[in-house]
Specification:
By secondary structure, the chain is of the alpha+beta class. It has a domain of 58 residues. 21% of the residues lie in helices and 29% in strands. The chain contains 2 helices and 5 strands. Strands 1-2-3-4-5 form a 5-stranded mixed beta sheet. A hairpin with a 2-residue loop joins strand 1 and strand 2. The radius of gyration is 12 Å and the shape is globular.
Amino acid sequence: MFAQLPSGHTVTFDGSFICLEDSGEGRSITNAAEQIIRQLETATAAYGIDLDRYAVIYRDTMGNWDQLLHLEGRFAGFKILGGTDDLETAKARAALPVS
């Protein structure tokens, strides 16, 4: 596993996206957003990866994709991606980081 996240949530790199999937156990991604962004920042930095170059999206326990906004390793809010359960639609709606 790339990063140790609360309750075993899965992490996948997909182009300019880091995709998280809620395990449905323990704290949800929504409720642990600040902690998750901190952990992703630590894990990516250890590999020389700049988290700010990636959009972080997540699939919640209802199956819908939303976005965790972040800046300089800190959680900056949520972006609702329109209640879609389709990954490609979610990626098209997500705010991409500025390169």
